[in-house]
Amino acid sequence: MDVAHCFLDGNADAVEFCPHESLHHVLAASTYTLQEGDKPSRSGSISLFNVDADMGRLELFHRVETAGIFDIKWSPDGANIGPLLAQADADGYVRIHCLECCSNGSEAKGNFLSEITGEQVSSSMCLCLDWNPSATSISVGLSDGSVSIISLQESKLDVLQEWKAHEFELWATSFDIDQPQLVYTGSDDCKFSCWDLRECPSNLVFQNSKIHKMGVCCISKSPSNPHTLLTGSYDEFLRAWDVRSISKPINETSLCLGGGVWRIKPHPSVPALVLAACMHNGFAVVKIEGEKANVTEIFSKHDSLAYGADWQRGEFCKEGKRSSIIATCSFYDRLLRIWMPESNIFM
Question: Measured on CA atoms in the order 313, 336, 212, 33, is the torsion positive or negative?
Fold first, then answer.
């Protein structure tokens, strides 16, 4: 069910609802636009919206012009910091923006992003990033196959360590939210790896090079099951892993979604429910229970590469129906949509 939509100022590649209490209505959307020519450049932006599903409203209230952005992430709620928004961009920078809030913190109008710090991590492009649960460090994947671990202390970024993790572009990096000393990475080399940060350089815990038939695009730990890890790949499969045997995780189930699985977002409060951006096949809502995985809904109202997707925190009720609000964006048509699943995801 459509709620609202709009077009962005550039090619849309990521959307992220703010997870912080009283700010769940704030949505960030980022863009990456390649300007071709004798001197090609990569430009981008971050747009902030106030989402009011009751009124069917998607209201732009702030925009920041930046370098071309590959990824954005809000700092996690409950980390005694924030709300902060981190960006990974084509100039090799990680930049941290603070959402400056109104006095009562309940209304997004008049709020704005203020950059508090930035650091050039590499001469390569920063392709992806993830906060650790305490928001004290960030893992960054680079286009040369390296991964960087950056600390954030008193509004200052410092590179703690960096190592060559993969042979090609590193599109996925994710902290283990239950064991934050572990970082997972995935790359165009089809390898899925885990690293222990307690040693420097980081110790390779495992590396799986046989299951994914194409590049690994996204990795996410389940917020409801400490034993489940999810991966998405260009090979069109969403996979669930049991990581209790961390040196050799077990591929519990695989589900073909009919398009390269670029981004996966577990539901913040409904166990087993996952939202997937499937590049050439729209967006899918998937339910994973043990060895069973089923698509409960496909959203196909985008006409371009399905790239960005996220759940809004909290429930939405309309005409007695409980549901969740979803934001999705597609690349070349620059389209941002807000919608709610037709199926009852709370059953």
Answer: negative
Whole-model pTM above 0.85? yes
Residue for token digits 């071309």? Answer: 68
Closest CA to 96 of 152, 21, 50: 152
CB 192 within 8 A of CB 216: yes
Q: Which residue is associated with the tokens 């815990």?
A: 205
CA geometry: angle 166, 167, 170, nearest 5 deg: 50
Q: With beta carbons less than 8 A apart as the criterion, state whether 155 and 191 touch.
A: no
User: What is the pLDDT confidence band of residue 225, given thresholds at 50, 70 and 90?
Assistant: very high
- Predicted confidence band at 113 (pLDDT cuts at 50, 70, 90)? very high
The H or E element containing residue 142 is strand 137-142
Rounded Cα distance between 108 and 51, Å, is 9
pLDDT of 268 > 60? The answer is yes
Burial class (CB in 10 A: 0-12, 13-18, 19+), 319: exposed
**Listed residue (118, 121, 122, 100) closest to 110, CA to CA:** 100
Whether 229 contacts 239, CB under 8 Å: no
pLDDT on residue 102: 56
CB-count exposure of residue 133 (10 Å: 0-12, 13-18, 19+):
middle
pLDDT value of residue 108: 46
